[in-house]
Design goal:
single chain, about 325 residues, alpha+beta, 2 domains, three-stranded mixed beta sheet, 11 strands, elongated
Length: about 325
């Protein structure tokens, strides 16, 4: 929890966020992902200053437990002075003890955000889904919370002005916006109407722009002119390399060695190894050249033949993609 200190911005955890989305699709079924089509409603986690602190927190916790579909789960909440926003004790259940920072005694509207993250720890614990290392596991938890419909609360808890700041979670505000935009594109919802923080709205719009760029990368037909031009250049290089390899098979040992040297030099410039280039060309034996690229929805890599306009269907999230390979 950043409280008065500097808030990190940008996309420093974007690779782990994308890996988290892929992991969710792999661990949960397609139908389970789509059972979270409706986000937590603001009215269900509303918390005003006149509400009893403990009864109100228990009510919000029950609503989040219900949203995640956790059967026979009881959350017991206490407050104490601590560095982090909250902490949960992961046990076999069915009771789980969550400690909230004493700060929430007077900042009650953000209790739902803290509980959304901590109860997601319980959800992932029961799934047996985790990443190695505290940092990556917390990023997974933030991403899952957001993608499954409760993370807009975490972004709405972000507030920043000249004199103070507050942010919950491990993702940056823009990364929260990125995952929210991915969810919005999947389910056709607009989470921005729920924000009470103007800084949250700004972060969401920036994250949404980053999410749209995922859908505009070649070989997708929505790619822009510059991306298509670079893709065509890289494709010609890959095709020339393939021809050189085929030609080298019929040459003497020296010619074959020259071809291997040329291939090694070309591999150093392989498109998939270049920063910012999501696609990579790979030979397929004696068959056509193939290109692999990440699905813009779940980020699972898809591999299709290089033969012009093709329609690909992601086997993980079932997204149908129009490609120009």
């Amino acid at each position: 929890m950043a409280n008065g200190g500097p808030v990190e911005h940008g996309y420093p955890h974007l690779d782990t966020v994308r890996e988290s989305i892929t992991a969710l699709y792999k661990r949960l079924s397609y139908d389970t992902i789509h059972s979270f089509a409706t986000s937590v409603a603001p009215v269900d986690v509303a918390f005003c200053d006149t509400d009893d602190l403990h009864l109100g927190a228990q009510r919000v916790a029950r609503e989040i437990v219900r949203h995640y579909g956790l059967p026979d789960t009881r959350i017991i909440i206490s407050f104490r002075e601590m560095t982090h926003a909250a902490n949960v004790e992961l046990t076999a259940g069915p009771e789980y003890f969550i400690e909230l920072n004493d700060r929430f005694r007077t900042h009650r509207r953000d209790i739902g955000a803290a509980l959304a993250h901590e109860v997601m720890h319980v959800y992932l614990h029961r799934l047996g889904l985790s990443f190695p290392g505290t940092r990556d596991n917390e990023i997974l938890t933030d991403t899952a919370t957001t993608y499954l419909g409760a993370g807009w609360l975490l972004l709405d808890a972000f507030r920043e002005d000249r004199d103070s700041s507050q942010k919950l979670g491990y993702l940056t505000p823009e990364e929260f916006g990125y995952v929210l935009a991915k969810r919005a594109a999947l389910f056709g919802e607009d989470p921005s109407i729920w924000f009470t923080s103007p800084q949250a709205y700004t972060a969401y719009t920036r994250g949404a722009a980053q999410a749209r760029r995922d859908e505009q990368q070649p070989p997708l037909t929505a790619a822009g002119w510059a991306g298509r031009r670079r893709y065509a250049k890289d494709r010609r290089s890959a095709q020339a390399l393939g021809s050189a390899q085929d030609h080298g098979v019929a040459q003497d040992h020296r010619a074959s060695q020259d071809a291997r040297n040329a291939r090694t030099a070309q591999d150093d410039r392989a498109p998939g190894a270049q920063p910012g280039v999501p696609y990579a060309f790979t030979p397929d034996g004696r068959g056509p050249l193939r290109v692999s690229f990440p699905c813009p929805t779940c980020h699972q890599r898809i591999r299709v033949p290089v033969r012009g306009r093709v329609r690909a269907r992601c086997g993980l999230c079932r997204t149908v993609l129009e490609c120009d390979t």
